[in-house]
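Quick log. Single chain, no ligands specified.
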Amino acid sequence: MSSNEIRNFGIIGWPVGHSMSPKMYMAAFKAAGFPNYNYIAMPIQAGRLMLAVDGVKGLDFRGINVTIPHKTSILTHLDAIDSDAMVIGAVNTVVNDGGMLTGYNTDVTGFLAALAEAEFLPEECNAVVLGAGGAARAVLWGLCKRRAGYITIGARNLKRAKVLSDDFQLYGSVEAMDWSTDEFKEVMQTADILINTTPLGMFPNVDAMPPVDLKLLPEGALVYDIVYNPAKTKLLQTAEELGYPTLSGLSMLLLQGRESYRLFTGKLPDLEVMREIIERELIV
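-> predicted structure:
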C-alpha cells in the first residue's frame, strides 16, 4: 500500500460513539506514515446491517471493525469466514479484498497474546471463566486452542452457561456451574487462572464485581479481567490486595487491535502509540 493512497476504515455498532477505535487506529496510521488513511465510527442499527455491508463494498472501505450488536448477525452477510470466527460464532474484523468480504475474530488472538506477554502458559491449566455471554466464547476458544486441562464456566444463568459449555465440548473439557454453589467454590480452590468476561465493573459501574470469593484461589493464581475501562477494575484491585498477580483487559484490547491492523494493512502498528492514546482516554 502506498503512503499517499486514500484508504477508508471504520467501526460499526449501536451505539458506537464511545468506541476508542477511531483514535487508536488514527494514531497508528499517522505514526506509520499513512496520512490519507481514515477511520470512522459508524452508528448502525440492527435492521440496517445489510445496507451497511453493501456500503462497505460500494464505498470501497478496506476494512471495518464490528461491535455489538452485529458481531454474530454479520456472519450471514460475508463472503468468507476465518476458522476462529466460525468456531466462536462472532466476527469483529472484516477485510474487503476487491469486493470480497472476509470475517475474522481477533479477540482470541488478543486474549492469547496478552497471556503470552504475562508469561502464563494455558496448556494443561485449570481455568475458571466468569460469564456466559458473547465475550466468553473467544476466551473459551483460546483456552481450548492452547489445550487447557479443565475449564469451568461460572455464571449466574446456569442454563445459558450449559449451552455455552455444550458448544465447546468438542474442543476440550468444559463444564458449566452456578457460581453461587459450593461445587463452584471447590473448583475455585484448584484454579490456575480466573478470567472475568462479564461487564461487571465496567465504566460507569466501577464499584461492581462478580460475586466470587477471590480468597478461595490458590496462591499465585492469575486474575485476568477482560474489561479495559477502567484499566484497573474492582476485581483486579481486590485481587492485588490479596496478593494475586493480575492482568488487565487493556492488553487484550491493544493486541486484538494490533491483529486487526495487520489484517487491514499487512503490517504491524506501533503498539506503544496505540497504548498511549488509549491510556489517555481511560479511567485509571
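The chain has a mean pLDDT of 95.
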